[in-house]
Amino acid sequence: MSNENQVAVIAGVGPGLGASLCRTLTGAGYRVAGLARGTAYGEQLASEINAAGGRFLPLACDLTDARALDESITRIERELGPVSVYVHHASQLVMNPFLEIAPDEFESLWRITFLAAVLGAQRVLPNMVKQQHGALLFTGATAALRGGARFAAFASAKFALRGLAQSLAREFGPQGVHVAHVVIDGIIWTERTRGFPGVTEDKCLQPDAIAQTYLQLIQQDPSAWTQELDLRPSVEKF
Amino acid sequence: MSNENQVAVIAGVGPGLGASLCRTLTGAGYRVAGLARGTAYGEQLASEINAAGGRFLPLACDLTDARALDESITRIERELGPVSVYVHHASQLVMNPFLEIAPDEFESLWRITFLAAVLGAQRVLPNMVKQQHGALLFTGATAALRGGARFAAFASAKFALRGLAQSLAREFGPQGVHVAHVVIDGIIWTERTRGFPGVTEDKCLQPDAIAQTYLQLIQQDPSAWTQELDLRPSVEKF
Amino acid sequence: MSNENQVAVIAGVGPGLGASLCRTLTGAGYRVAGLARGTAYGEQLASEINAAGGRFLPLACDLTDARALDESITRIERELGPVSVYVHHASQLVMNPFLEIAPDEFESLWRITFLAAVLGAQRVLPNMVKQQHGALLFTGATAALRGGARFAAFASAKFALRGLAQSLAREFGPQGVHVAHVVIDGIIWTERTRGFPGVTEDKCLQPDAIAQTYLQLIQQDPSAWTQELDLRPSVEKF
Amino acid sequence: MSNENQVAVIAGVGPGLGASLCRTLTGAGYRVAGLARGTAYGEQLASEINAAGGRFLPLACDLTDARALDESITRIERELGPVSVYVHHASQLVMNPFLEIAPDEFESLWRITFLAAVLGAQRVLPNMVKQQHGALLFTGATAALRGGARFAAFASAKFALRGLAQSLAREFGPQGVHVAHVVIDGIIWTERTRGFPGVTEDKCLQPDAIAQTYLQLIQQDPSAWTQELDLRPSVEKF
């Protein structure tokens, strides 16, 4: 199938991996929609990408709201076509002593990290199954494999997402949908993280390099699909 | 510390593992409180255990309601003493095609399997830390390690619980609290499961045998604590 | 089955976990044979244990030599009875940059850590299978789960042992033989390690506490067997 | 660095994945040497690849013999240039009841699956470290993660290889060498396997598709390296 006919949704777009995914996929010929809470950044990215000949549609959407997400996907289908790639990488880092994390924080983190992935997958899977073609990618973290001290909320949400990815891979792989979970182990070099104490570029993951691997996952031949891989800087201790 | 001075709470008590835990721990000298949605079964269990010389207090409690749980623990502390053992094993098996599981079901399963564990742990940990002594046990399942097809909701909730257990072990182990996660791989032989098609006693886990291992975990020397173990029948394929 | 009728072999006995296993199992009524390269320590341990009313037989044996091991087991069977418990915990820590580990070192480490376990298991399993009763325990390490830098030889040998344990558990569990792998994560407090720089008792695993868990594993009910558990000091970072 | 300047060694070349790796890497501009027990197949492959404008050198070599391997690499360095990519994928499937696998079989399987990887890595790493550039790829299997019944020999050798890969990744990643372990889960469609009972093309991994992922691993940016990934057919149960 030619990429020109294909539509990718990036759920969670900001300067960083989200933007790199949008650039990389449009660069490879995909029509891409980017969902984010607001559209300020998305509009800016759209100017850049569309000027370069790509096709990028930014939409404001609360990913944890099933109805809002449904409306966004419906609009994407109408404007760009049926969705064959869906990347969920929305989350939020919470790092705090367990006794200082309110139950509400556990819940809101679970909603954006996990439930939003369920909502997106449930919205796009029926058509992918019908086409016997599609890719669902989930952005994980080291915390998806190892619950560290002070990571009770973040790790448990990322663990849940990994369990979901495995379950969907087993259920939908034989139906033609490639479900992959990417374990990002390290800090991504972005506008935001470059201000962090002790963070230097040579110790970080480049978002464009990560996006390249996502693209390769999406384009893998169905005879040899990857369900899970890790990504980390060469210098990262692990 | 003598067991006679110690209080254990079993969060989730019905005929099966919950009852075996109550019998085993009271038999070993613990004062035990059992929390469940209703008290019918608990009262019956209390008659049996208290007649045998044990001390068992059944309480009705919605474990997903922070205030209700707080009140229950407060009452337990008043009637039995400070809690030094807390076992969370409430959950509910959901096995369905992904597209037939409503978001609400994901949420309610997450509340009882995971959030209730957070609420219980946050309630009892401060005192355990103060005493530098305590044990938190979480009942997991194979689905905590492997997300099978049709297990999207159950596996993701159990994955989350496992991530929590690891995080708490790393944070509270050095503070004297033993946090362990038990992976139960197979069907427990209970009143309920013996009616299942194809289920025979020789292929099931005996709840008393499981409870024995929980007791041993609780009594491990702090120099050699187990964070995770699995339990399955000798004949189980895995 | 009463413990009095049972014979346990500890393959790898020195002051430390080996000695604790011998003391703990004889204390629980097992007749125990201890295999080691020499008998000096074993004789001393025998005096102590036999004086206390236990039955302990120390034998010198090169565990990597199939014929020598066969002869030792034959003598044990003649003097103590058929073997129903076999614990392999011989190994040797090698920690060196990869390019400074000779292929011969990889091989000798593999022989003592892994091949000796194969030889022991092949010698005792036929009778265990015939009796539909027995326990094979393997002592693992963190390095069985995670290959750290400078641990290429040790980790690969311990990984191999873990793979063996899983395979034997799946093959022989349904035949009545309990195969368990114990991941020891930390330094055991022994005569030897107490001389190590920076090692203090409060940060170490007590060998008697470890041995207690081995005994519990051996005595688990076949309806709820553990295939793998970890053990570490409460204060250990992991 | 341009691929034209780079030399890749495929340790273990036969019709199947080995051949696909040779074709894919020469197609991407690498000069490739292929090591195998004999050269009959290699010569045939060389005719094909060299006719297509690639540069492929087949060499007969016993990979478990340090001296023979050293001589082969020396010749490759002389004829093609310094080695910057080394793929170890030699192994042999052994599937038998544990009591029917001779200790010698454990050993020979360990030599070809594991020790040969050590010998190759020790031979090529010093120069890679000097160049701060290189890739070591190891072909694993499901049996590297799960020791199944009747897989005692194969699984333990593959477990060992995985432990090695992790250890080398941690030691040599910061020195510029990318070490990756590929878990192949399923049957590769080759001349040999297409004769197996019940094996059909649609259920197998295509060797060219696998090779494509190896090439992508080799070309990953050092800011986002994969240490491990799995590959399986979309229809594979796992």
Rg of chain A, Å, rounded: 17 Å
Can you say what the CATH homologous superfamily of chain A is? Answer: NAD(P)-binding Rossmann-like Domain
CATH topology of chain A: Rossmann fold
Topology order of chain A in helix (H) and strand (E) letters: EHEHEHEHEHEHE
Coarse structural class of chain A = alpha/beta
* Strand arrangement across the biggest beta sheet of chain A: 3-2-1-4-5-6-7
Overall tally of domains of chain A: 1
The backbone outline of chain A, from C-alpha atoms, is globular
How would you name the oligomeric state of the polypeptide chains in this document? homotetramer
Low-confidence stretches of chain A: none
Helix content of chain A: 40-55%
Distance between the termini of chain A: 38 Å
Major sheet summary line of chain A: 7 strands, parallel
Strand content of chain A: 15-25%
Number of helical elements of chain A: 6
User: Using DSSP, what is the number of strands of chain A?
Assistant: 7
